[in-house]
Amino acid sequence: MRCRDDESDMRRRFLQYSIYIYGMPAVLVTITLVTYIVSTDGSDIGYGGAICFLASDIAIALAFGIPVAITIVSNSLFFIITVRSIRNCPKIEKSKQDEQHATVYIKLSTLTGITWTLGFLAIITGNQVLSYLFILINASQGIFLFISFVCNERIKKLISQNGRESGTGTTKTNVNTAVNSVSADMD
């Protein structure tokens, strides 16, 4: 693999990702709509009759189960491709330790929704422990992302420098610097 810098290659890749991002939900909505129109002869869209508007097993499989499985598999593949690209890119400093690489990979996996694999397994097995674990981990993703991307050594240094300095003008400047650093760190 090579590290891709070419402008036209980046535009082509962006177009491919955009088609995937907007196309997949359109396919899922179409499948769900067609399933309900065919199964109810167009008379019922499922609201008001049950807890979930996906009342039949086939509708649940077509509108939720299969799309979640496809999403998990494709996100896992994208994650693997991204990790391989990062490892093989000559522009990335090779002197970093494996622990730092592992941290980046974990951050990326939270962004790609690897935790949903646990949720899918909880649904398939019907295991309550897995269900509660999935709910806890998935609900805590915002906290994990905050810790992963904001609570790092550079931000800790900026905050400690900010605490040592006094004066209102200096504080305002340092806060802006910290915000810009957080933004730059997440890029």
Layout of helices and strands, plus pairs?
Layout: H1 7-40, H2 57-88, H3 98-111, H4 115-125, H5 128-139, H6 141-149, H7 153-164, H8 168-186
Helix pairs in contact: 1-2, 2-3, 3-6, 4-5, 7-8
Label this structure with key terms.
mainly alpha, 76% helix, 187 residues, 3 domains, GPCR_2_secretin-like
Give the distance, in angstroms, between the N- and C-terminal Cα atoms.
22 Å
Estimated structural class: mainly alpha
Query: Proportion of β residues?
Result: under 5%
Gyration radius over CA? 22 Å
Low-pLDDT segments, ≥5 res: none
Helix content: over 70%
Q: Major sheet: size, sense and barrel closure?
A: none
In short:
The protein has 187 residues and is an all-alpha fold. The chain is built from 8 helices and no strands.
